[in-house]
Structures are given as structure tokens and as C-alpha cells.
Amino acid sequence: MRLFFLTFYPVSVKYDSVMFGKKKKNKEASDTPSDSAAGKETKESKKGKGKGATEELPQPESNAKGSGKKKKFFTIKKMIFILMLLAAVAIAGFVVYRIYFKKADTATAGYAQQELVNITLPEEILRFSYDFMPAIYDSLRTFNSEVILLENEIERIKAIAEQYPDQKKIAEKEIKIWEKEKDKMKKAYEKIETKVEALYVSYRVNQDAGLQLVDEQKAEIAQSAQDALTGSLALTERLKTVAPEVIPEGFVKGNIYKIKKKITELTN
């Protein structure tokens, strides 16, 4: 038995070493990639690099310079000049429209709402007067303007009186004349406004009967309104006299003066 064990033991050890050696070699072989796979990867990477290299080739300098010139065709200075030119054309067109066409538009536009600070009638009655009693409507507008002129002149004379108190009596005498005429005209137009309001209410209640009353009374009311303006118009006549216009000499200066005058009239 001892002899048999001694004889068998080396064989078994040798066999195990051989078997374990094969396993180790197989494991190392599986862990490391094969030469063919590595070669394949290097070829594919080279192919990829080759394609990328062909796509990233720089363009010729001549093309780059040409594209730069095209981009610089519209410079900032040119754009500013074009915008200024367009603005000048737009302004010129607006001025021409206001000068030559706006007057025609306003002439045919008809009734236009206005702020009449010295008239107590509401807007709908003023429109009624414009539609059915235009002479009375014109007198109401004139009355409003006359009151403004009278009040402005009174304030002007008062300022002179304060500046020269020793001559205050002269100013006070003139102020009484203007205030008396203003009060007289305002009292007359209070009655006229009452009559116009009554005609409007009659028209709203019964149009046929109201229009009949308008036809019967509008001439008398218009005459009363015109008579009430007589005294004030005589006083304010000297305020409306305009000094002769002095146009600068020369073609350029004369045209500039006329353009400025037109712009001022249009903006006022």
C-alpha cells in the first residue's frame, strides 16, 4: 500500500499542475483581447480619423476674404444714413399732407367738438344748434372768443395799474368800460342759451313740434345774439389788428420763414 501511494502521488500532482496550468492560461487569454480584434479597432479608429480630417479641412483664404467683403457692404454709417433719409422723407410727406390736404379734410368734415369754456350748454345742444340753427351756433362761438379777449385785456390793464400805482385811476376807468361790456354780453347770452335749451328739449320730446318751434324762433334768437356782440366787437377790434408781416429777404431765408409759419399754424 505504501508503495502504491508513493507511485500514484507524483502522477496526480503532475496532472493537477497540468490542469491548473491550462486553466490559468485560458483565463489570461480570455482577459487580453486578441490581436485581430485590436487590429480591427485600430483600423476603424484610423478610418474615423481619416473622415474627420477630410471634413475639417480649412477653406481657402480667397473665399474667406470674399465673404468678409460681402458682410461689410452694409456698414453702420450706411444704415444710419438710410434711416435718416427715410425719416426726412416721412417728415416731408407729413408736412405736405397737413399743408395741402388737411385743410380740405377739415372743410368737409362738418361738425367738430370744441372746448367753449364760456358756454354752459352741453355738447348735445351745441350739436343741435349746429345742425338746425347754424347762425346761432356761430354766435355762440364768437361770444366765447370775445369773453376771452375782454378778460385778457382787463388783466393786462390791471398789470399796468400795479406797475404805476400813481396813475391807477386811469387804468381803473378803462377797466370799468371793459368789465361793463363783458357783464352786459354775458347776461344777454345767458338768456339766449336758455332759449336754445328750450328748443332742444321740445325737439327731443316731439320732433315735429320742436322743428316747428325752431323755424319760428331761430331768426329772432340769431338777431338777439348778434346784437349782444356789437359792443364787445367794437372794443376788441383794435386787439385784432395784426402788424404787417415782414418776410426775410432771400430765397432760402424766405422759404425757411414760410415753412416755420406753416408748421406753427398746423400745430396750434
From TrEMBL:
Keywords from the UniProt entry: Coiled coil, Membrane, Transmembrane, Transmembrane helix
Chain residue ranges for the region called Disordered: 23-68
Biased composition (Basic and acidic residues): 38-47
Listed transmembrane segments: 79-100
The organism's place on the tree of life at top rank: Bacteria
Keyword Membrane: yes
Coiled coil ranges: 168-195
Name of the protein described by the UniProt record: Uncharacterized protein
Record organism: Desulfamplus magnetovallimortis
